[in-house]
Amino acid sequence: MTRLNELRLISRVAQMYHMEGRRQAEIAQHLRLSQATVSRMLKRAEAEDIVRTSVIPPAGTYSELEGALREKYDLPEAIVVECTEDRDGAIMARIGEAAAHLLEVTLAPGEIIGVSSWSQTIFKMVENIHPQKSAQAKYVVQTLGGMGDPSVQTHATQLTTRLARLTGAEPKLLAVQGVTSSREAKLLMQADPFVRETIDLFGSITLAIVGIGAVEPSELLARSGNIFSSRELSDLAEAGAVGDISLRFFDKNGKPVKTPLDDRVIGLPLEDLERVDRVIALAGGSKKTDAIAGALRVGVIDMLVTDKFTAQRLIN
C-alpha cells in the first residue's frame, strides 16, 4: 500500500499544478511539502505516466470522489482510500495506512501535534508510521482525558507515547478522566500542575489529528469509562447531536450542541480546534456517515481521510 499512497499524493500534486494552474510554491504551502518535494513529485508523475496531456489518477485512487467532497463541503483537502470491504475493521486499517504516509511526508520540524487518544483509526495510523529521522515534532499532546477502565485506559497512553517516540517528540499526557462526575470535579482535576501543563499547550498545537464519533460511542470508548450515561446520550440526540470530535458534540449542520455535559469534559474544545493551523480528521464507516457530514460542516477540518464507500455516501 506504500506505493499506492505515494502515487495518490503525486497524483494530487500533478492535478493542482496542471489542471488547477497552481504554482509550485502555492502547492507546497497548501500540502505542507517543501517546494523541492513538489518539483520531484511533478517529475515522478511524468515517469509514472500519471501526467501525459492530462492527469491520469492511478487505479485505486479516487480523485473524482475527492473533488466532489472538496466542492460539496468546502473542504480544503480530502483523501479517499481504496477498500475492498465496507466493514469497520477493513476501513480503519486502510485509512490508518494512508494517514501514516500523509503524516510522514508532511510533518514539519518542531510541530506540536495534538492527538485525540480514543480513536481506533488513529491507533491504526500510529501502527503504520515509520520512525522519523529528519522532520521531528516537538510535542505530542493528548487532547482528551485518558483515564478510565484500567483494562483499556492504556490505549490512550500507548497511542500518545508511541506517536511521540516515532516522531522524535516529547509526549504530554492528560492523565485524568475524559468525563468527570461534575463540573467541580473537573476544576479540581485541572488544577493539578501536570494536567495544567498539558492543557496550556492546547493553544500551541500546530497539527491536530482527530477522529469523528457518532453519538452512540464506539466499543473502545464505551469500555473506557469516558462516556456519558444512556440518558445523557439520549438527551444529546434529542438536542440534535449527530456526532462528536473529542466528546464535543455538533448537529447535522455543524453547529455545536452545547449542554451542561460540556462542563464535565476534560479535552480540547471545538473553538480551540478552530485556531489550529492544520486539522486532519480520520473517519469512515456507515454508522458514522451522518457524524462525518456534520463534522465537515463545523468548519474546523482541513483534511478528511476516509474510504470510498463512505465518500460516496457523503456525496449522495
CATH class of the largest domain: Alpha Beta
The termini sit apart by: 28 Å
Q: Rg, please?
A: 19 Å
CATH architecture of the largest domain: 3-Layer(aba) Sandwich
Described by the principal axes of the CA atoms, the overall outline is globular
Structural class: alpha/beta
The helix content is 40-55%
Q: Count of DSSP E strands? A: 10
Biggest β-sheet: strands ordered side by side in the sheet = 1-10-9-5-2-3-4
Order of helices and strands: HHHHEHEHEHEHHEEHHEEHEHEH
Largest sheet: 7 strands, parallel
* Total of helices: 14
Q: Which residue ranges are poorly predicted, with pLDDT under 50 across at least 5 consecutive positions?
A: none
Average pLDDT score: 91
Description of the molecule:
The structure is a single chain. By secondary structure, the chain is an alpha/beta fold. The protein has 2 domains: 1-59, Orthogonal Bundle (Arc Repressor Mutant, subunit A), CATH 1.10.10; 62-315, Rossmann fold (3-Layer(aba) Sandwich). Helix content is 45%, strand content 13%. The longest helix has 19 residues, at 88-106.
